[in-house]
Amino acid sequence: MATTITPVSDAPAARRKTVQAYRQGLRSWLAGRGLDPDSPALTDTPDRVLRALEEMTAGYDEDPAEHLARVFPVDHDGGPIMVTGVPFTSLCEHNMLPFTGHADIAYQPRPGQPVAGLSKLPRVLDVYARRLQTQEQLTRQVTATLDTHLQPVGSACVIRSEHGCLAHRGARKPGSVMVTASYTGTFRDDPEARAELHRLMTG
Predict the structure, then answer these.
(1) Of the candidates 197, 126, 109, which has an alpha carbon nearest to the alpha carbon of residue 158?
(2) What residues does the GTP cyclohydrolase I domain cover (predicted)?
């Protein structure tokens, strides 16, 4: 399901008032840095920032369960199903700088159990990624959603990403990669199942 971004001009009055205050705050920040917010280069910058934030937090307007509501009967033996290398970008909830990376998402349906469409796993990731996030929370939200709505034998999500807050401020370590993992069911409890999962994920 495509996400529709509501133009600020069409938003409820209370929200328009909040957006206007934020726009004025951005103009004041630019002026405080000694810049002219009315210059040709900057006059539209507050609106661009607001549109970017609207787009990058559009996941608050979506329910990830909708992407798993439809399943398909498939002849399978209950082996793991996964999508690897799924790209995403999210905003860190601590500083609102982006973190970008790839996710490997898997679940193991029960034998004969209907399965979700192939695109649905990345869509679940996208819904949560397009919210203010931490990587740890994002990883867990994906597996929790798969468990709740598909009721598999187990699920897994491994995320690797680079964080703007680590690369461009503070420690300033560009190229550093954060890795998080969430395992449930058989992938959490059975070391052999988890090892086989990793083998499949890494090819």
Answers:
(1) 197
(2) 26-201
